[in-house]
Every structure is written in C-alpha cells, then in structure tokens.
Design goal:
Largest sheet: 4 strands, antiparallel
Distance between the termini: 55 Å
Shape: globular
CATH architecture: 3-Layer(aba) Sandwich
CATH topology: Aminopeptidase
Order of helices and strands: EHHEEEHH
CATH superfamily: Gcn5-related N-acetyltransferase (GNAT)
Oligomer: single chain
Strand order of the largest sheet: 1-2-3-4
CATH class: Alpha Beta
Helix content: 25-40%
Number of helices: 4
Number of domains: 1
Structural class: alpha+beta
Number of strands: 4
C-alpha cells in the first residue's frame, strides 16, 4: 500500500530519498543539496509530497512538488518533478501523489493545476490523461539564465 504525506522537514531520510530519486527523473538535472531540499520544504510556495511503501517498511518510493503561487489572475498551481522509484513503478505511486496534489491545490483555492511532461515519458503522459489532465495547445518557452542582464 502507498501512503502519501507532506515532507515537513528535510530529514536525512528525506534528503537521501530525493537525492536518490531525482536522477531517475532527469539525467541532466543537478542532484539537489540538503540546503535545496530544506528550502523547498520551508517555502510557503511549495509542498514536497512523499509516497511511502508500507509494504517495504515505509520506504520513500516517490516524490512530487506542488507549487502554489498567487498572480493577478488568481492562484496558480503547478505539479513539478514527479518521480517514482524504478522498483515501484506500475504500483499506483504516481496516481497517489497526483491525487493528493490535486486535493491540496483545490483546498488552497486553485481552479486548475498545470504540469508539463516530455513526450518521451509515455507512461507518465498516459497517467496524467487517465487522471483527467487535458493536453493544451500552447507554446512553452524556456530561456537559459546564466547571469543577470545588464540594463
């Protein structure tokens, strides 16, 4: 059985789990430091959700970050960095994490929740569609920020 909870502190267990899971999500992303994870947990704009496998002694087998922030048009909610341990895939971890994120976003007052997922992540894309997410026809832009722009 999978149980989802919020990380309320960057304990050694939470730090080790996030550092173990992030490389399974992205080979190009830097592994977050203990300070990075502490910042995420402490921020009022983010909720770090943990999926624990009760059949494996409560081991953390997945994480999801829910970002909630207010803009002039309302409260925005984004799901980011959803990752399930390779050993736990196909067992409902992503579903449990996403359901909890949607519940929390709704409780906070968000009308919608957005996320992005690379096309190559076929299983993840099927999961999101099955959970009611609809693909939007939009352009996503990204700029590399290497240093402040001189004005």
């Amino acid at each position: 059985m999978v149980r989802v909870e919020e990380a309320i502190e960057a304990t050694p267990e939470v730090v080790a789990a996030v550092q173990r899971l992030v490389p399974q999500l992205s080979s190009s992303a830097s592994v977050p430091t203990e300070a990075d994870i502490a910042d995420i947990v402490a921020s009022p704009a983010t909720v770090l959700l943990l999926a624990r496998d009760d059949e494996a002694g409560g081991e953390i087998v997945g994480t999801l970050t829910l970002a909630l922030f207010r803009i002039p048009t309302g409260l925005r909610a984004w799901i980011e960095d959803v990752v399930t341990a390779e050993s736990a895939r196909g067992r409902g971890v992503g579903t449990a994490l996403t359901h909890e994120a949607l519940r929390r976003a709704g409780e906070a007052g968000a009308r919608t929740v957005d996320l992005t997922s690379r096309a190559s992540r076929e299983d993840a894309n099927r999961l999101y569609q099955r959970l009611g997410f609809e693909r939007r026809d939009t352009n996503v832009y990204r700029a590399q920020v290497s240093r402040p722009i001189d004005r």
